[in-house]
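Ops channel
N.P.: pipeline sanity check, posting one input/output pair.
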């Protein structure tokens, strides 16, 4: 199983951790979007997409109604607590 909250995504350009900003469910995978939160990077350029196979995505399976989004996400919701 993979729990997305146990992952840290670091930007190779600015060397800071990226923030989870979006979440989309697809056929086979859940796609998490991470972005830089600083003036160094254009988030549209350094955005990272992390794909987790649906069957092993412990985090999304735990909360099937979660629509994604960090504090700067499109949905404006904080990640649910453990
Ligand atoms: Zn960056």
């Amino acid at each position: 199983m993979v729990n997305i909250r146990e992952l840290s995504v670091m930007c190779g350009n600015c060397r800071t951790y990226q923030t989870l900003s979006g979440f989309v469910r697809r056929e086979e995978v859940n796609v998490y979007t991470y972005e830089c939160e600083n003036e160094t990077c254009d988030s549209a350029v350094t955005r990272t997409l992390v794909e987790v196979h649906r069957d092993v995505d412990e985090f999304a399976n735990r909360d099937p109604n979660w629509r994604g989004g960090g504090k700067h996400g499109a949905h404006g919701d904080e990640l649910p607590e453990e």
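N.P.: looks fine end to end. Residues 58-62 form the longest helix (5 residues).
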